[in-house]
Amino acid sequence: MTAVRVDAPAGADTTAPAAAFRFRPGRRSRSRPLDLLGLLPFAVYVGVFLGAPAYAVLTAAFQDDQGHVTLSNVTSALQDPYRQAFTTSIELSVISAVLGAVLGLGLAIAVSGARRDGLVHRAVTTASGVLAYFGGLPLAFVFLATLGPQGLVTKWLDSAGYNLTQHGFVLWNMVGLVLVYLYFQIPLMLLVIFPALDGLRPQWEEAARSLGASRFQYWLRVGGPLLLPPFLGAVLLLFANAFAAYATAYALSTGTVPLVPIQIGSVMSGNVLAGQQNIGNGLGLWMIVIVSVVVVAYTLLQRRTARWLR
Q1: What's this model's pTM, rounded to 2 decimal places?
Q2: Distance between CA atoms of 266 and 284, rounded to whole angstroms?
Q3: Nearest-CA neighbor of 75 among 276, 290, 245?
Q4: Do the Cβ atoms of 97 and 235 come closer than 8 Å?
Q5: Do 85 and 280 meet the contact criterion of CB atoms below 8 Å apart?
Q6: Ranges of each domain in the chain
């Protein structure tokens, strides 16, 4: 039987069967609590810029103008005109999330066939990392200069005899906002779904082909079911991303579109009825609830995805 040398006190038997050999915890595992100190700056950052504002919104949402406990802010936030803002925000978020996920998945599948170190894959990945976080006033300016009433493309189409405005297209209605949101939703989908596509091993498709399955059957019975959890998780992430967007929609519509973030900004600017000083906190509380549910569902789907990505 093979014997191995182990550390032992002087005079002790220094040989042992290989099956009885056990590794002792090293220094790295013993210093694990010290490694967690590296998370302290991030925890402080999250607590100051996320935890403290969320706590302030939570407490103020249940207070009236005199500081007494009340539920009027929470209930009024679900009544008109604020109920319409929630309806419009959810509709815009769902449409842009589903379209962005489908288009982004198709583009990601097409790009995944290229070499990882090739020019196409690197260019698409780099561009997605930039465009996914390109929003706010710069994005609104780009679309206004392109498809606005005096935009370059609008003038060109008008000279060709096709007037966008007469056909009902403006950047501050549902169609226009969805088009603008897709500009950063599709790149974000690419970044989120790429790891899942990389996790699909070529051996799985080769095994399916060897058993007589076509490419369609492989995606229907193997690739599709494996990609479904990360795809649904990506849709939820895109929904939360669109639901919380503020600057782009406000710059395009000057605040006329009934979206929840725009309504909150209007209330915080002083546009509020007497006795409803904290209605903005009520709106913010419902936003936190909706986004929290979406984030929890996204986390559960990501955990399921991680099982076969290992």
Answers
A1: 0.80
A2: 12
A3: 276
A4: yes
A5: no
A6: 73-309
Biggest CA–CA distance in the chain, Å, is 99
Within 11-55, strands assigned E span: 15-17
Share of the chain above pLDDT 90, in %: 21
For residues 256 and 32, what is the distance between their CA atoms, to the nearest angstrom? 53
Residues sharing a CB contact under 8 Å with residue 301, sequence separation 6 or more, in sequence order: 229, 230, 232, 233, 236
Between CA 210 and CA 240 the distance in angstroms is: 42
Neighbouring C-beta atoms of residue 259, cutoff 10 Å? 25
In contact, 294 and 239? CB cutoff 8 Å: yes
CB-facing half-sphere around the CA of 212: CA atoms within 13 A:
0
> 73-309 falls under which CATH superfamily?
MetI-like (1.10.3720.10)
pLDDT band at residue 104 using 50, 70 and 90 as cut-offs = very high
Condensed to tens digits (0 to 9), the pLDDT of residues 157-215 reads 888 888 777 777 888 888 889 999 999 999 999 999 988 888 888 888 888 888 888 88
Angle, vertex CA 16, rays to CA 14 and CA 19, nearest 5: 155
